[in-house]
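The protein record passed on below.

***
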Amino acid sequence: MDLKLTPVSMPTAIRPGAGVRPAASASAEGVGGSFSGALKGALQSVSATQNESTRLQREVQMENPKVSLEETMVAIQKAQIGFQATLHVRNRMVQAYTDIMNMQV
């Protein structure tokens, strides 16, 4: 079953490149404007934040005088917020996939 939409059958409001200069769209794609690239970058950022939080926790437990408890608590909260946001995005993506799969064609 082929469900591809051709530019002629797509509404003009959502046509790729409609009202956009070709140079602008080419530069956006050159920067890495793909959804998978953005998602991968966000996941790596959340992972790095969690790793930093774990490292700071370990340093506080070892009583390192260079690491403050306040800095550690802020890092933990940042990691927790990032993880919760990632979890919400994942839940929304699963829900969207489920909705699409349940559509009658």
